[in-house]
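Annex B, item 7. Sequence and structure tokens for protein A, then protein B.
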Amino acid sequence: MVVNSLLALSPQFTQSKEPDWRAMLSRTDYRVPLFWVDWLADAGSLTGRLLQASNGDLKVKVVSQRLAVPTLSERCMLGLKEKRCAMIREVVLYGAGQPWVYARSILPLATLTGRLRKLRRLDSRPLGALLFSDPTMRREPVQFTSFHSNAGRPIWGRRSVFRLDNKPLLVAEFFLPTFKPLTP
């Protein structure tokens, strides 16, 4: 199932076809179903919330971590020049044994310097835990998107730029069709 979900997402990350990202207007944004507003607009750590929603049964599986050129919209959000590489990390977060969230993080090479060099070696640790424990972290406004998976079900996602020591990184999170929190 996770393979199908990832295949449904992968075409969304090409230079020619990207998700249609929109600014979240408010927590009562009429374009987003109420259930999803609660998850998409949450200003806290998604990792922390997923831990709670899975009764502590949360695992991170790294799908890919490589140097590559981000998509056009990712470069624009981060202020990266054309053909500038960044570290792109893709993971699946498993809650209660099910693939719940596909996350794609773009970390510019200039961000991965100094004390933030540690972000190069996250392995299966969740990035969110590090972000929300950093006292210098600032988060920019959330954007959201939705599109249909190969199974025809909508996949909702959000993304935002985080700044650590004023250095940017972009995190996009997509709730997979198998996302069913155990607790609200």
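Protein B:
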Amino acid sequence: MRYVSPTHVAICALATSLPAFSTQAAESNQVAFNNRCRTCHSVKADDNRLGPSLHNIVGRKAGALPEYAAYSQALKSSGIVWDEATLNKFIENPDAVVPGNNMKPYPGITEESERTQIVEYLASMSKE
């Protein structure tokens, strides 16, 4: 009989649980998005609602989605290209990032972990 160290067993157990953890995290991130953002936004291409589609938002210039006409002038002229850090700041307090935006009456999300989940979800929807 071959000896298998407890460390080896633990590493194997962790490695086999990663796909489940990854799926659970992705589902949790989607729930955070759905709970806070889905009323006004979609992540489906060309599915604009009260707010623009957030499909492929990471790497996109702010206010530049041609099929969405209701951007504020402030957002269109902000010069922002959305990355994860800027999205996190905007979701926390849109007025601090782009004064004069149209996200009213959205107050922002103060909870860091919730913002992180939403940004991770948006980033995953920008890689498809």
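Comment on protein B: Confidence is low (pLDDT under 50) at residues 8-18.
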